[in-house]
Amino acid sequence: MGNCASADNKFDPTIAISVNDFEAKYPIGRGGFGRVWKVIHKKLGQQFAMKEMRKDLIVSKRSVGSIMNERRLLGILKHPFLVNLYYAFQNLENLYLVVDLMEGGDFRYYLVKHRDIKEHNLKFLCACIIAGLEYLHANNIVHRDIKPENLVFDKKGYLHITDFGIARMSTADNSSTTSGTPGYMAPEVLCNQDHGTPADYFALGVIMYECITHFRPYVGKTRKDIRDAVLNKQVQLRLDDNSEWSQEVVDIINRLIQRKPENRLGFHGVDELKRHKFFKDFDWEALYSKQMKSPFEIDEENNFDYDHVMKKWDPVQEKITAHNSQKLFAGYLYDATLFSMQKP
Predict the structure, then answer these.
(1) Is the CA virtual torsion 192, 197, 202, 206 positive or negative?
(2) Least C-beta-crowded within 10 Å: which of 26, 165, 211, 253?
């Protein structure tokens, strides 16, 4: 995709952006608070994804803090392996985030459709995630919710990290914040302990484990069940001698899913992962510049569950007024073109 932050002579960026500036084509995803639409900026002619979020759902689920946190972080982050923000705005009923259009759908849907992933493909997948995490961690940010649903393919088959609602600064005391998805949460997060960037590497190990075995290392019906499974024993991946998977992939997974963060690969930085023998001779520079051909074949049409996307939400009791709407979501507006125009 082109860079939306560049100026256009026909478009005056000093005029506040609104939903009327976009033509909605069709829904392509669903979040906890609304749908994601493929849209076209009417004046720029560029395609984006627009995340529409209902304010009443956000308030009823007590998620104003995470929504504003995501908007704040997206306003300062920009990287080729993230889903980047271009516009943010609101009206009385909804919040809107206009971001990079990821034509390939999310990795969870891909896993459902393609159960068998080859080791070469898994290596590319993990390298994309590591590239995104490397940038986040260099900026002292822990994502804290790395999972297949939050990894999305672009049209070239490269994977990008999205959803920063519960991301936090790694330098802060995180012992009181335990949000996340239990099956991918690091033990230190599950047990209400202070945690940092190694928590994201644990989630990466879980994803790799899941790609090989089709289940996660620590399972349970509830968060407590999963925490008890983690506390019970250290899981290790073991494969038959005649397995198609190499010992290098088994080793990196087992070192990533270590329960104690100080024993986990990546505790001393991302270079521990990049130097692991699993990535021997891997061309990181070709990946960073996106000159490497992705092994993933992308279907730009059939890459999401339409029935799930269109499912209606349960009714909520919250009523949004003009007064509390403005107060709760003050400062949400963002326009990347304004920042590009201010550069010398």
Answers:
(1) positive
(2) 26
Homologous superfamily of the 107-288 domain (CATH): Transferase(Phosphotransferase) domain 1 (1.10.510.10)
Tell me the per-residue pLDDT of 302-317, one tens digit each, with 9 for 90 and over: 666 766 777 777 777 7
Q: What is the pLDDT of residues 207-232, one digit of tens each?
A: 999 999 999 999 998 889 998 998 89
What span, in angstroms and rounded, lies between the C-alpha atoms of 48 and 15? Answer: 19
Which residues make up each annotated binding site for ATP? 51
Give the residue among 263, 108, 129 at the shortest CA–CA distance from 187: 263
pLDDT of 276 higher than 60: yes
* Strand arrangement, sheet containing 22-30: 22-30, 35-41, 47-54, 94-99, 85-90, 334-335
Q: How high is the pLDDT of residue 151? A: 97
Tally of CA atoms within 13 A in the half-sphere of 169 that contains its CB: 5
Collapsing DSSP to helix, strand or coil, 48 comes out as: strand
Would you state the pLDDT for residue 115? 81
Domain limits of the chain? 19-103+303-342, 107-288
Q: Enter the pTM of the model.
A: 0.89
Binding residues: 51
Based on the residue annotation, tell me whether 314 is a catalytic residue of this protein.
no
- Structure confidence at residue 4 (pLDDT): 42
Q: What tokens appear for 325 in the block? A: 């709407």
For domain 19-103+303-342, say whether CATH 3.40.50.2300 is its number: no
Cα 337 to Cα 17, 88, 155: the distances in Å are 10, 12, 24
What average pLDDT does this structure show over 27-40?
A: 91
Spot the catalytic one: 21, 100, 106, 145: 145
Torsional class of 172: left (φ above 0), alpha (ψ -120 to 50), beta (otherwise) = beta
Whether 107-288 and 19-103+303-342 are alike in CATH topology: the answer is: no
Largest CA-CA distance found in the chain, in angstroms, rounded: 66
